């Protein structure tokens, strides 16, 4: 049966206030990217999310970030690469400890925010991120298709899970439209659901200029912190189910 993975960023509370309805999102998706505390999340809320993910049988990923709670991890930080590698290792280890206590484990890593976007083109930070992951263990890494991090990971023999974004605009070169630019985030649930169905069946997505991009992804990210995100994700699930597409992790 044709299938696609749906992932979402979860555990991103701030001072005990969640930015997403984790329980509702967990009921709809197949993989959870769980915050590690550096951009959002605290141990109790992260553990609560991990227990929910374990109960639902979701695949759990660590979602490490630059150490930037004030900026929600969306600002570039000019780290020393060795320090960045150590902080990546620390974050994965922290979430994995909580995950094991919750009855699951970290099965992959998806960098967050500015780190995720930076390692597409910044060799030093891409290497540091991959070094931090490798220091923990042989975990797959979830990334945008193309870019330095993908090339470097594949040369190391690290499995890459390429993903697309359900509700983000794409530039013609396959990068994401900046959140500061028009068209960065899509809000039409029906259009987003159709886009995910297209990704699952043809592997293509339309860029903001009309260019058809061939992405060939294994996973699609749905953002739980956007207005109406639960309803949008439910529309995606309904569209995929009606088309006979199974929602499950590839791990």
From TrEMBL:
Recorded GO MF terms: 5-oxoprolinase (ATP-hydrolyzing) activity; ATP binding
Assembly mode: Forms a complex composed of PxpA, PxpB and PxpC.
Entries under InterPro entries matching the protein: Glyco_hydro/deAcase_b/a-brl, LamB/YcsF/PxpA-like
NCBIfam families according to UniProt: PRK05406.1-3, PRK05406.1-5
Reactions catalysed according to its record: 5-oxo-L-proline + ATP + 2 H2O = L-glutamate + ADP + phosphate + H(+)
Group of enzyme by EC: hydrolase
SUPFAM superfamilies: Glycoside hydrolase/deacetylase
Protein name: 5-oxoprolinase subunit A
PANTHER family in UniProt: 5-OXOPROLINASE SUBUNIT A, UNCHARACTERIZED PROTEIN YBGL-RELATED
Function statement: Catalyzes the cleavage of 5-oxoproline to form L-glutamate coupled to the hydrolysis of ATP to ADP and inorganic phosphate.
Single Gene Ontology BP annotation: carbohydrate metabolic process
EC number: 3.5.2.9
Similarity comment: family membership: Belongs to the LamB/PxpA family.
Record's keyword terms, sorted: ATP-binding, Hydrolase, Nucleotide-binding
